[in-house]
């Protein structure tokens, strides 16, 4: 479980085949204190398990499912990534509840300046449309953001200078793909409603 509040950024140094999946070697901007083998870390919003650690570097395995649902199999080497360690009981929930289970890949369409802020407009796959709600939460490459406008197939978020300075979202250019995870509470509510009123046909 995560909150979407990024704790550090890193760089993808190496990606090598590992069975049907892959193993990533990531270098962090600073050593993550007491990072342990077996610990969960969200990498651009995808929950991965640390399998090896040495100083400011760690390795994590990526399953075939994660490769299929996220951008991790396509990121160029040297690309910066967002990192967040798993939530501890008693921690502040500064963002929203993020599982680290990426729902789908979206695409950045527009960047619109608004004073010190930037409005980012994204395109989302159809399966996520029911969960795009104005003032609702969404994780973009692992960053907890609030949707301030949405229409069928697209949504817009506002990025403050702090978010731009401590995450990789400032690196994005229109046309680039991002990992999207919608609000788990909305998904649970919709699943319960559908189970009470099954869709026929």
Structure write-up:
- Helix content is 12%, strand content 43%.
- It is mainly β and 201 residues long.
- The chain folds into two domains: 8-85, Elongation Factor Tu (Ef-tu), domain 3; 104-194, Elongation Factor Tu (Ef-tu), domain 3 (Beta Barrel), CATH 2.40.30.20.
- Strands 1-2-5-4-3-6 form a six-stranded antiparallel beta barrel. Strands 7-8-11-10-9-12 form a six-stranded antiparallel β-barrel.
- β9 (137-140) and β10 form a beta hairpin.
- 32% of the residues are buried.
Structure characteristics:
Elongation Factor Tu (Ef-tu), domain 3, single chain, about 10% helix, about 200 residues
Put the structure in a nutshell.
The chain has 201 residues and is mostly beta strands.
Oligomeric category: single chain
Low-confidence stretches: none
Could you tell me the CATH topology label of the largest domain.
Elongation Factor Tu (Ef-tu), domain 3
The end-to-end span amounts to: 36 Å
SSE arrangement, N to C: EEEEEHEEEEEEHEH
Q: How much strand content do the residues show?
A: 35-45%
Helix content range: 10-25%
Largest sheet: 6 strands, antiparallel, barrel
Strand order of the biggest β-sheet: 1-2-5-4-3-6
Q: What is the tally of helical segments?
A: 3
What's the number of domains? 2
The chain-level structural class is mainly beta
Mean pLDDT: 92
Please report the first level of CATH classification, the CATH class of the largest domain.
Answer: Mainly Beta
Question: How many extended strands?
Answer: 12
Large-scale geometry: globular
Radius of gyration: 17 Å
């Amino acid at each position: 479980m995560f909150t979407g509040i990024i704790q550090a950024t890193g760089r993808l140094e190496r990606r090598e085949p590992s069975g049907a999946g892959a193993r990533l070697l990531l270098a962090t901007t600073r050593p993550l204190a007491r990072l342990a083998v077996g610990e969960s870390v969200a990498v651009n919003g995808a929950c991965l398990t640390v399998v090896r650690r040495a100083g400011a570097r760690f390795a994590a395995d990526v399953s075939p499912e994660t490769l299929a649902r996220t951008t991790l199999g396509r990121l160029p080497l040297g690309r910066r990534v967002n990192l967040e360690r798993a939530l501890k009981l008693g921690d502040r929930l500064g963002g929203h509840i993020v599982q680290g289970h990426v729902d789908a890949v979206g695409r950045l369409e527009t960047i619109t300046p608004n004073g010190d802020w930037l409005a980012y407009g994204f395109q989302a796959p159809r399966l996520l449309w029911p969960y795009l709600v104005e003032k609702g939460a969404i994780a973009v490459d692992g960053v907890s953001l609030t949707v301030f406008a949405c229409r069928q197939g697209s949504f817009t978020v506002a990025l403050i200078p702090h978010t731009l300075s401590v995450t990789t979202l400032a690196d994005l250019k229109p046309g680039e793909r991002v990992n999207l995870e919608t609000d788990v509470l909305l998904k649970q509510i919709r699943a319960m409603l559908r189970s009470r009123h099954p869709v026929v046909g």
